[in-house]
Amino acid sequence: MTAEEPAWLDYRIRGRPGAARPGKHPARDPGQGGDFRAYRPFWQLPDAQRIDVRRSITDPAGDVLVRQTQQRSSLTLIIAADISRSMAPTPARSGLAATARLIEAAARSAARAGDAFGLLAFDNHIREDLSLPPTRRRMAGQQAAAALRAHCPTGRGADGMLHLPARLPAQRCLVLLVSDFLLPPAMLETALASLTRHDVVPIILTAEAEGQLPPFGLVRMADAETGRTRLLLMRPALHRRQMAHAAAHHAALAALFTRHGLRPFHTAGRLDLAALSQHLCAP
User: Fold this and answer.
1) In this predicted model, what pLDDT tens digit does every residue of 193-223 receive, in sequence order?
2) Buried b / exposed e across 142-160, counting CB within 10 Å, b at 16+?
3) Which residues, at least 6 apart from 3, have a Cβ–Cβ distance to it below 8 Å?
């Protein structure tokens, strides 16, 4: 992590968490602490300790009024990380290195907020050796990030995304879904449809030079999943087809996220944690 990057990741969850453990996030249910929510007549909320005498004296209806407060609770922050071969670091793409930085910042921030943090790493399957059950241990995120940096991706697919719902907590949680999203549309559609219980934020990691192919010349093209490369003579007609294919993929991806009410975060080359914090905290 470089000096200019924030040590923390700010985040919020859409909707209300239902966890019983106290925390910093506005909860779904009223409770004994937290922010002021509304006044209620005593007959609706018979709590003598919370009677507001001054407000009751001035109430036009003559009711005895009680202050109702909004409970604050903790939540669970999960990073669901694609670690298939296409996520291997390259000179133009930070890949797993960006994911590891995100894990460190997210785990540190969750610990500071009293939230639980977990990691679900997947390629063709959920990778138990690299995943981390939700925990509040402060060092767990650093250990998980170190293991990910040492990992050499070999999986040629990301079908493990389909198994995420069965591994997520029952309570609503914040899920940062990290991938390059070079995935079959039908598989991605199925995966997103099964995650509607949670607040999912797709984080799209793309190569810095994506979409910048020269219109003419020799270009070395790599298959993201197999790692195989071949040398192509790029010419205007082929360049137009490549650009049209890339544009169609991005448009289909945007439409898919819109259908599921998701707001993706795009990054090219290097993950900007400050910009991601602003994205996660935007209303």
Assistant:
1) 999 999 999 999 886 555 566 665 555 555 5
2) eebbebbeebebebbbbbb
3) none
pLDDT mean over 89-105: 79
For 130-162, the three-class secondary structure string (H helix, E strand, C coil) is CCEEEECCCCHHHHHHHHHHCCCCCCCCCHHHH
Tokens of 227: 């790692």
**CATH number attached to the domain at 76-210+261-281:** 3.40.50.410
The residue behind tokens 């009677």 is 51
Return the exposure string of 172-185: e unless at least 16 CB atoms fall within 10 Å of the residue's CB, then b.
Answer: bbbbbbbbbbbbee
pTM above 0.90, yes or no: no
Q: Which residue has the tokens 């093209």?
A: 221
Q: Mind listing the pLDDT tens digit for each residue in 235-260?
A: 676 657 766 767 778 889 999 999 99
Tokens of 208: 């810095």
Instruction: Tell me the domain boundaries of the chain.
Output: 22-73, 76-210+261-281
Query: Distances from the Cα of 23 to the Cαs of 34, 38, 183, in angstroms?
Result: 9, 21, 36
22/31 Cα distance (integer angstroms): 10
> Per-residue pLDDT for 133 more than 90?
yes
